[in-house]
Amino acid sequence: MGVEGLWSLLNHSAEEESLLKISLDRNFRKEHHKGDKLLKIGIDASIWIRQSQAVFFKPGHATAGENPELRTLFFKLSQLLSACILAIFIFDGPLRPSVKRGKNVVASPHWLTEDFQRLINAFGFFSHQAPGEAEAELAQLNAAGLIDGILTDDSDVFVFGATHVIRSSILSSNNTDNVTVYTLDKIKSDAQVCLTHEDIILIALLVGGDYDPCT
User: Residue ranges of the XPG-I domain (predicted)?
Assistant: First the structure.
């Protein structure tokens, strides 16, 4: 998902750290004692919904119990809550492209959407529907400074202009708190990476991505 090979190109500029440590460092800095203190992280809701259904692609899914998707989402949200962050989940909107990787995109909301939104609200987090593609909305919110970072495993956010990206095992079934952090400043300054946003766009055009009609 995203631009093939982009993560590997950027890895040398990345840093691994505890999500809780990142959050606490942000929350208790003196400059944040006025106004919002919590680390604001944006998340593409569709990724979590898709990964919550992974049980159906494994042997023995019939014994997974009642509502395994919601149970998975519940535990993922619990991990975020324990990290002391403010999560904002972005859902795809009606103007998202109708074709993705050569396949038609289902226009109607996913059947888990309403229940997932209820869980999000119950945990004290927020949800928002983008006009179109959720990843594009997240990148713009990040570039504008309205969220501190994006928690995702979709490299498209770099193409859309994200400046702070967190790639995390929270998006998988692993319980570790470690995350990999990418910032546009380090991507540009790292001697072994040295890529600007414009360079990343060029790579996406050459390699192809989710909305390339040739992929």
Answer: 121-193
Determine the average pLDDT of the residues in 49-53. 84
What does the alpha-carbon distance between residue 165 and residue 181 come to, in Å, rounded to a whole number? Answer: 6
Report all structural domains of the chain as residue ranges with CATH numbers, in order of start: 6-207 (3.40.50.1010)
Question: What residues contact 12, with CB distance under 8 A and at least 6 apart?
Answer: 190, 192, 193
Write out the H or E segment, with its range, that includes residue 168: strand 164-168
Phi, psi of 179 (to 5 degrees): -130, 160
The least confident of 17-21, 84-88, 99-103 is 99-103
Arithmetic mean of pLDDT over the chain: 83
Task: Give the strands of the sheet with 85-91, arranged side by side.
Answer: 15-18, 178-183, 164-168, 149-151, 39-44, 85-91, 126-129
What are the φ/ψ torsions at residue 104 (nearest 5 degrees)? -70, 135
Q: What is the pLDDT of residue 203?
A: 93
Q: Are 113 and 49 in contact (CB under 8 A)?
A: yes
* Pairing relationship of beta strands 164-168 and 149-151 according to DSSP bridges: parallel
pLDDT number for residue 109: 79
